[in-house]
Design goal:
Elements lengths: L3 E9 L32 H7 L12 E10 L4 E10 L4 H10 L3 E5 L4 H14 L2 E5 L6 H9 L2 H4 L11 H6 L7 H10 L4 H12 L9 H22 L12 E4 L7 E2 L1 H6 L5 E3 L8 E3 L3 H5 L5 H12 L5 H14 L5 H11 L5 H9 L5 H21 L9 H9 L2 H14 L2 H7 L10 H11 L1 H15 L9 E5 L3 E5 L31 H21 L2 H27 L5 E2 L4 E7 L4 H4 L6 E6 L26 E6 L5 H15 L11 E4 L4 E5 L12 H15 L5 E5 L7 H16 L7 E5 L18 E11 L5 E2 L5 E2 L17 E10 L1 E2 L4 H7 L4 H15 L4 H5 L4 H18 L11 H12 L7
GO cellular component, one term: nucleus
Keywords: ATP-binding, DNA-binding, Nucleotide-binding
GO biological process, one term: mismatch repair
Length: 920
């Protein structure tokens, strides 16, 4: 399991005051009908009355609440906690947490409200996670605190104890019984006082997070520890309790330090792409063509895990981004390339030492774990030596951190101790950890006796044969059984099978002979080797923190080298990170699209935040923008033909910004880029439809746009790709205009927006007026060629001054082709060139001509001509008469004095209708 999550939510009134709040219990609105999800012995009437608040003062109000969360990362053996935080009515924080943690198992309380449970369940179904609603009694703050205090991480202090401190006592008791059971019993006697351990844990708990003031969080953490304990017991048949869990740290989540990019944006930008296994019998997946796939060349498992975490949570720290850009640039220097190659080679030997030591401490370690430990010490020393060969590496942060973390002296000591103690060849043959000769004199003696047991048994058989009468047995065998001793066997005689039975010699019995001299040799050898291995482990675990820190730094180095290799392979350049909220990309490229095409056409992009209606970059004192950005816009609207590359252009701008903020940050596919920090990226690009969703495609699009409008800030980036196309054209165009104007009306708080649309009718004076709105209009250039290869005049289809005038739609000529230039230019495209595209892709000629004719009539508002095509002469004459009457009525001046008299009005109506007033 990669992640385990425990979530907990309580509810409050709309004004934010907690209603009847008791730590560990969620209070329910009286209008919310709860469903019973778990039979709990604690759900008695008395408890229900105790938990119920005074609901008379609540009424039918819309409720919001608070959220507490905890999840476990088994790669780093760390529990991450989110202290109690206010949640909104749309559960945006919950969704963000689920997307950032990517849990395999989701747990929540049976008293959580229905809408909250639905959000968790929907995420579990979409991601393939396991969702469980646990009894509310597991989500109690007092129980959660007890579970945390029982963790070995908090209860046991790390004391540097010399393993030979009690050597005098051991030597004095050397004559006593020494075996593994006595050794483990002695260790239990020195584990410490339980009361003192709990006191230590209570003191140290505050060092990790302020959980005492976060009852929902501590409840979630307790339920999470309970779940991990059950899973461990079920899988390992181990009942050691929470104190035996592999939890090495507790860290608080800091969501304000990372970029918020939700699952829809990650999917639309193709950051991750999981491909299923070819076999239907395998549930394994692999990374397909994705940004993570092309950038991931990490050599270690910890590096790959850390890299994925950074992809999910890009950094917002300008200081961190600049420092790590320096590191990537440093590794790209030509003089450092040979050393970088050596570093990557040695990184392959860096294993997950915290997990290895955890397995060894729990008694589940194998010979492969000890080999991994020795391999780590060797490659760590080699890494340290390779770092010394880097040119001017002392000024690079990651190099300094690695030199400090790689304690060569301690690592050599650990490697030598393990290598001098363990016999690798014998261990591989025996399938367990065996000890080298000359390590322990007592063990050597036992092994010597055990190896010479064949000759000893031969002598025993020879001595016994003199005492056995010849008529009793003609031959005998002596067989050694581990854990029993040696056994003397004689052939079965026929008379012994009678009723009289076997005649036993004096002093003999038919049972195993437990010899006092040879004894139980094999178990004694194994017991002594276990004791020696445990003593070796005690020496190794002293360096646990040092080795774990070295692994973390090596994982960071692995990610940096992976980015450097990608930058070198794909010609990525270092972006300039600035304080101003700008995006200035010169000759940018799409990192994935350029991998699958023969030639990619790069394009520029320029945006700046806060340039909504009534704003200019000169009067924005917070941005310190220069004169160049004075003409930039916050909203860029791109138009053009179908399939001309508009969506690729949108995605490449977002991907370049996203790549620049990866932590550690990578270089970007552009000639140059000046980028400010973007705190959130929202997209409306792709609609992930599913039969499991009760929403239509258009409703899914609306959810994405609604989420962006609710959560965007002035430093956010929003992508709209043909929003509104899923409904009636007029309604879709209205929604599209309304969303853009809403963002522009935010003025200084307007985010950076990239939009693509085929709603050409909205570029009018009363809608999206290009002359009044602070919007930058772009289009993707195309060329039309004749059947002879000549370039046709297509300039009339593009205009940047009067987009609604001179709209000339030219029907495609026979053999005409459209050529996509994939180049961005200023101005608007007044046509999507659907007819040319349709003809090029094989639609019949008459269908294309008819479509072009109807489009012209729609553009000229001459729909009446379409109706005339199916009319008879009589119907056409009636239509002309009706048109004449309508025109006369519209020409009637109702403001004249004639309209003041009823009789005059009737006379005028009669004249318009061509009737005699006297007839009525």
């Amino acid at each position: 399991m990669v992640h385990k999550s425990g979530l907990r939510r309580s509810r409050s009134t709309r004004d934010g005051s907690q209603v009847g709040y008791v730590p560990g219990r969620e209070e329910l609105d009286q209008n919310v009908a709860k469903r019973v999800r778990w039979d709990s012995p604690c759900s008695s009437q008395e408890e229900s009355e105790r938990d119920s608040p005074n609901l008379d003062s609540i009424g039918p109000t819309k409720v919001i609440g608070r959220l507490g969360c905890a999840y476990y990362d088994p790669i780093k053996c760390t529990v991450y906690v989110l202290e109690d935080t206010q949640e909104d009515a749309h559960y945006d924080l919950t969704k963000m947490l689920l997307e950032h943690s990517s849990p395999d198992v989701i747990l929540t309380s049976s008293k959580a409200d229905d809408a909250f449970i639905s959000v968790l369940q929907s995420h579990a179904e979409a991601s393939g996670s396991i969702f469980q609603v646990r009894p509310h009694k597991e989500f109690v703050p007092s129980k959660g605190r007890d579970r945390l205090l029982s963790l070995r991480l908090l209860s046991e202090l790390n004391c540097d104890v010399d393993p030979n401190h009690d050597g005098s006592e051991d030597s004095s008791s050397a004559t006593g019984v020494r075996n593994a059971y006595g050794f483990m019993q002695k260790r239990r006697e020195v584990t410490g006082d339980p009361t003192m351990k709990r006191w230590n844990a209570a003191i140290r708990l505050a060092n990790f997070a302020s959980l005492e003031s976060a009852p929902l969080c501590i409840s979630s953490a307790g339920a999470l520890v309970d779940f991990l304990t059950r899973e461990r017991a079920a899988g390992d048949l181990d009942e050691d309790g929470p104190e035996a869990l592999d939890i090495c740290g507790i860290e608080a989540l800091a969501l304000d330090q990372v970029m918020h990019i939700n699952a829809d944006a990650l999917f639309s930008l193709q950051v991750f792409e999981s491909e299923t296994h070819a076999s239907i019998h395998s549930d394994k997946t692999k990374e397909g063509l994705s940004l993570f796939g092309i950038l991931n060349t990490a050599q270690t498992s910890m590096g790959r895990s850390l890299l994925r975490t950074w992809f999910i949570r890009p950094s917002l720290s300008l200081k961190i981004l600049k420092a790590r850009h320096d590191a990537v640039e440093y590794f790209l220097r030509p003089e450092n390339l040979p050393v970088v190659s050596a570093l990557q080679t040695h990184l392959k030997g860096i294993t997950n030492i915290p997990r290895t030591l955890s397995a060894l401490r729990s008694g589940k370690g194998t010979i492969f774990d000890w080999q991994a430990l020795v391999k780590f010490t060797y490659h760590s020393v080699m890494l340290r030596d390779a770092l010394a060969e880097l040119h001017q590496g002392k000024h690079v942060e990651i190099v300094v951190k690695l030199v400090t973390a790689l304690n060569v002296g301690d690592f050599k000591e650990v490697g030598n101790d393990v290598n001098d103690t363990i016999d690798w060849e014998q261990s591989a043959e025996a399938g367990r950890v065996c000890i080298r000769p000359h390590v322990d004199e007592e063990l050597d003696q036992r092994k010597h006796v055990y190896r010479g047991i064949d000759s000893v048994l031969s002598k025993v058989a020879e001595q016994i044969s003199h005492t056995v009468p010849a008529d009793y047995a003609e031959s005998l065998n002596v067989v050694y059984f581990p854990q029993l001793g040696f056994l003397i066997t004689v052939p079965m005689r026929e008379e012994w099978e009678s009723e009289t039975g076997i005649q036993v010699l004096d002093g003999w019995s038919f049972q195993a002979n437990m010899d006092n001299h040879i004894g139980d040799l094999h178990p004694a050898i194994v017991d002594r080797e276990i004791e020696i291995v445990q003593e070796l482990l005690d020496k190794v675990v002293v360096h646990n923190e040092v080795m774990a820190n070295a692994c973390d730094v090596c994982a960071e180095l692995d990610c940096l080298l992976s980015f450097a290799e990608a930058a070198r392979a794909f010609d990525y350049r270092r972006p300039e990170m600035v304080e101003q909220p700008v995006i200035n990309i010169i000759q940018g490229r799409h990192p994935l699209q350029e991998q699958i095409v023969d030639a990619f056409v790069p394009n520029d992009a320029r945006l700046v935040s806060g340039m909504g209606l009534g704003q200019s970059s000169e009067n924005d004192s917070s941005s310190d923008a220069d004169d160049e950005t004075a003409t930039w816009s916050s909203v860029v609207l791109c138009t053009g033909a179908n399939a001309c590359g508009k969506s690729v252009y949108l995605k490449q701008v977002a991907l370049i910004q996203y790549m620049a903020q990866l932590s550690p940050s990578s270089f970007v596919p552009a000639e140059s880029a000046t980028l400010g920090i973007v705190d959130k990226i929202f997209t409306r690009i792709q609609t992930r439809e599913s039969v499991s969703k009760v929403q239509s495609a258009f409703m899914i699009d609306l959810n994405q746009v609604s989420f962006a409008l609710r959560n965007c800030t002035s430093r956010s980036l929003i992508l709209f790709d043909e929003f509104g196309k899923g409904t009636v054209a007029t309604d879709g165009a209205g929604l599209f205009c309304g969303v853009l104007k809403h963002l522009l009306n935010r003025g200084r708080n307007c985010p950076k927006v990239l939009a693509v649309s085929h709603f050409h009718e909205v570029f009018r004076r009363d809608m999206l007026d290009p002359h009044k709105l602070p919007v930058a209009f772009l289009h993707m250039q195309v060329l039309f060629t004749s059947s002879t290869g000549d370039v046709l005049d297509s300039d009339r289809s593009f205009t940047s001054e009067s987009p609604s005038e001179n709209r000339i739609l030219r029907a495609p000529a026979p053999g005409e082709k459209i050529m996509y230039l994939y180049r961005v230019a200023s101005g608007l495209s007044v046509s999507s060139h659907a007819a040319q595209c349709a003809a090029m892709f094989g639609l019949p000629r008459h269908v294309v001509s008819r479509a072009q004719y109807v489009s012209e009539l729609l553009a000229e508002h001459e729909l009446g001509k379409l109706l005339e095509e199916q009319m008879s002469d009589e119907e056409r004459l009636d239509l002309q008469v009706a048109e004449g009457i309508s025109r006369q009525f519209l020409e009637w001046d109702l403001t004249s004095d004639e309209a003041a008299h009823q009789s005059g009005v009737k006379a005028r109506l009669a004249a318009v209708l061509g009737r005699n007033l006297d007839d009525h």
